[in-house]
Amino acid sequence: MSNSTATASAAANIALVKYWGKASIENNQPATGSVSLGLEGLRTTTTLEYATGDHDTFDTELDDKARKRAASFLDLVRQKYRITQRLHITTANNFPTGTGLASSASGFAALSLAFNALFSLNLSKTALSQMARLGSGSAARSVYGGIVELIPSDDAYAIPIATAEEWPLDVIVAVTEERPKAIGSTDAMIQTASTSPFYQSWLSSHADDMTSAKQAIAEKDFRRLADTSEHNCLKMHATMITSEPPIIYWQPATVEIMHEVRALRSSGTPAFFTIDAGAQVKIVCLPSATDTIRQQLKAITGLKRVIVTRLGGSPSVTTS
Ligand code: PMV
């Protein structure tokens, strides 16, 4: 039996070992595995209801491009589950969209969870992760909270590897650019894979970073996780910077913060940075260091604002 409305909340995540490049563009298969942290405070809430006409309709601040992307995703999953019903979609993020803050991850995870609930599909978490991946590779990880691994295969899916309770961490999002990014992650990945001389090295060195990060997480070895994550992030950006034409997401404040975080770590503050396809810096730290880092960031010119969240991000779903 289906429900008349379903609402899902899913959190954004940040990858410490990143997915960059696709094994298949058609099925949105990541070329590599990845490991991420769920961001408790950065959420998308999406409600699905039946539309009255023969089109999907939206109640959202999302632009036309994002609406089209959501509607194509819904067409794909409707076809897969033999559903013809058009939908009315109400969706909102509680954080800035399209600036490299992983709104596609929380967005497609929330949409998948709500779709499953509205039509009572009773999909497993693995199938939900695979569904979300069709919308965005990183969304496959947002069907879980905590620390999550994406396993590449011919139908890639994520698995949870540690809970927030097992290793409480904070994430400070340093927003250095509020304008939407110039190139989205899918186009940037394709450009990088076809033109960067470093892309093959990125692929061939990736498994070592996965092993190292997972071992660091299992042993709660912050220093090792810091070194591996920063190395993996900089390798990913090196492939972008060396693509033709180059993709340089960083702003001056992005680089300033990287230096600041490295200086803090050298003087004993447990913190490291990571940067996705955008200018924002995400600083991962032990909760005891959060206030010190916030204070230090105040000196950075070009820093627009700071969002602090803890590791978490388990999704929730309600129906009526
Ligand atoms: O899921 P997408 O298509 O938005 O790509 C995500 C790419 C990165 O955020 C840069 C890395 C990752 O693993 O999340």
Query: What fraction of residues sit in β-strands?
Result: 25-35%
Shape: globular
Number of strands: 13
Question: Overall pLDDT, averaged?
Answer: 96
Instruction: Give the CATH class of the largest domain.
Output: Alpha Beta
**Compounds present?**
(3R)-3-hydroxy-3-methyl-5-(phosphonooxy)pentanoic acid
Query: What is the CATH topology descriptor of the largest domain?
Result: Ribosomal Protein S5, domain 2
Continuous helix count = 8
Which stretches of 5+ consecutive residues score pLDDT under 50? none
Structural overview:
It is a single chain. This protein has helices spanning about 65-80, 105-120, 125-135, 185-195, 200-220, 220-240, 250-265, 290-295, and strands at about 5-15, 20-25, 30, 35-50, 55-60, 85-95, 145-150, 155-160, 170-175, 270-275, 280-285, 305-310, 315-320. The longest helix has 20 residues, at about 200-220. A hairpin with a 5-residue loop joins β7 (about 145-150) and β8 (about 155-160). The protein starts with a strand and ends with a strand. The protein is globular and about 60 Å long. α5 (about 200-220) packs antiparallel against α6. It has 2 domains: about 5-160, Ribosomal Protein S5, domain 2 (2-Layer Sandwich), CATH 3.30.230; about 170-310, GHMP kinase, C-terminal domain (Alpha-Beta Plaits), CATH 3.30.70. By secondary structure, the protein is an alpha+beta fold. The protein is about 35% helix and about 25% strand. The protein has 8 helices and 13 strands. Bound molecules: (3R)-3-hydroxy-3-methyl-5-(phosphonooxy)pentanoic acid. (3R)-3-hydroxy-3-methyl-5-(phosphonooxy)pentanoic acid binds next to α2 and α4.
